[in-house]
Write a structure and sequence with these properties.
506 residues, twelve-stranded antiparallel β-sheet, elongated, mainly beta
Length: 506
């Protein structure tokens, strides 16, 4: 039976509350060779449970130390005899350190750099391509239960996370030369009835709530995991809303055959934002302004020409809510271009040491929407005590969409132009501003895989206590990818008629 516990995150900002609800135990939680019911009543038949080598056993886990791994060859293998450098994060470790996903887990492993850039971007390396041992992140996509999945694994439905380093990681999975990252689902457990909930809140107003419920009898087990969270950053107006659930079921067809099915769905709706802006105002002397739209002597002023008198430059001005051609003498402030974090950079004399929470240049309707649907049907059969076979059908589709801006504003400037190019009064004079190109971007990854795994193990105690296992992995996979991008472009430019040319960007 589980007991309520209170854990203070080592990250120092979050509080995690975990409580057991109606925890009833009628058997073992992890897989074992026999059903471990305590003192069975007279006449009650105790059946053995299929011990499959294709699902990692947590029996040998001791707190944060894991005993076995699947990364060494897609079969449950003791870490001590696996010929690879593998780090395993157990469920207890993930809970105690309030680790919510694979990218947060990267801070606690070695030889891996988590994805960077974009902060809240939905695509590519900004989400799930990690860099192992400095080998780059090309083609290094995460795996889920040994199968490729273009999504960041979340701890709400994850039993453990594994990180394998070195070129040999590519022998048994999808990995770059530096290594691979993988996760294992929480499985439905036979002869187990247990449930728990957790809640987490942070000082920025965000929250995270999870549910884990398992109901299992002798032949049938069902496990349901659910997540609801809204992770907020320091800035006002930011948020990362996510709802997800996973349903896993197991059916013991016979003494030697077990069928398992899993369906997972996740939806994210995130405000696009940046944690830092490149400052481009610290070199401005704060005394020189463009008062009359005439040529200025910019030497030593920290200003430079903005726009041109000979080339069209179309900009949507939110101060006037109109499209303006900045084909005129306009000026912009310059700076060192360093990224200013939200606590400021006091070493810069001309830049305020500290930025208000309300300073948020990104458009409020810049949204990243991410959806995941994954399905897994697996059949395990034991032909003999030494010969096992598993066949699986695995499918996942992920379709991130970025709405209204694919290039969020990323710098800080001050508008020093008292007049618009037309000569009208500039409503943004003296205000901070940034620029970005407006667009809508879509991508989709669909993976369909049929997998076959067989393993045969034997012992020869009279021959040097030899233990040996042979494994055969095979399968077929279809990986489909599609993408499109729609953006505002000028189509009436006779000088450069190609609308995809950068000069026609709005």
């Amino acid at each position: 039976m589980t007991t309520p516990c209170l854990t203070v995150s080592a990250l120092g900002r979050c509080l995690v509350l975990v409580g057991a609800l109606g925890a009833f135990s009628s058997g073992v939680f992890a897989q074992s060779a026999t059903a471990a019911t305590a003192s069975p009543a007279a006449g009650v038949k105790v059946d053995t449970i299929l011990l499959t080598p294709f699902q990692v056993s947590t029996d040998k886990d001791n707190g944060y130390a894991a005993g076995n791994t699947l990364s060494g060859g897609r079969a449950d293998t003791p870490l001590k005899i696996t010929s690879a450098s593998i780090s395993v994060m157990t469920k207890e470790f993930l809970d105690d350190f309030a680790i919510t996903d694979m990218n947060e887990a990267a801070a606690w492993t070695v030889g891996m750099n988590a994805p960077t850039g974009g902060e809240s971007g939905p695509f590519g390396g900004n989400r799930f391509q990690a860099d192992f041992r400095g080998a780059g992140n090309g083609a290094n996509y995460p795996s889920r239960n040994g199968a490729l999945e273009y999504f960041v694994a979340d701890s709400y439905n994850t039993e453990r996370m594994e990180f394998s380093r070195g070129p040999n990681a590519a022998l048994f999975g999808d990995a770059g030369p530096g290594g691979m990252q993988g996760s294992s689902s929480k499985l439905a457990r036979l002869n187990n009835r247990q449930s728990s909930v957790s809640f987490r809140g942070d000082s920025y107003g965000g929250y995270r709530a999870t549910l884990d419920a398992n109901y299992g009898v002798d032949k049938v087990a069902v496990r349901f995991n659910a997540l609801r969270q809204n992770t907020k950053a320091f800035q006002d107006g930011t948020g990362n809303f996510q709802e997800a659930f996973t349903l896993d079921a197991s059916y013991k067809i016979s003494q030697n055959t077990q069928l398992r099915a899993e369906y997972s769905k996740s939806h994210e709706w995130n405000i696009q934002y940046r944690r830092t802006y490149n400052e481009n105002a610290s070199l401005w002397n704060r005394t020189t302004f463009n008062d009359t739209n005439t040529t200025l002597n910019t030497a030593g002023t920290g200003l430079s020409t903005y726009g041109s008198t000979t080339a069209d430059r179309l900009v949507w001005n939110f101060g006037t809510n109109s499209l303006i051609n900045y084909r005129a003498v306009q000026y912009q402030t310059n700076g060192l271009g360093y990224a200013i974090p939200w606590h400021g950079r006091p070493e810069f004399a001309n830049f305020q040491p500290g930025i208000s929470k309300t300073f948020f240049l990104g458009p409020a309707d810049a949204i990243a929407s991410r959806d995941l649907n994954s399905r897994n049907i697996t059949l395990d059969h034991r032909f003999s005590p030494s010969l096992f076979l598993q066949t699986s059908f695995i499918s996942s589709d992920i379709d991130p969409t970025q709405i209204n801006t694919a290039n969020p504003p990323n710098d800080y400037r001050v508008d020093v132009n008292r007049l618009l190019p037309s000569g009208a009064t500039n409503p943004n004079f003296g205000k901070a501003y940034s620029e970005g190109s407006d667009s809508r971007q879509y991508q989709a990854n669909n993976v369909t895989e049929f997998r076959f795994i067989a393993t045969y193990q034997f012992e020869a105690p009279k021959m040097f206590q030899m233990k040996q296992r042979f494994s055969l992995n095979g399968g077929w996979r279809q990986d489909l990818y599609e993408a499109w991008q729609r953006a505002w472009r000028r189509v009436d430019n006779t000088a450069v008629p190609n609308p995809t040319n950068a000069v026609n960007t709005l």
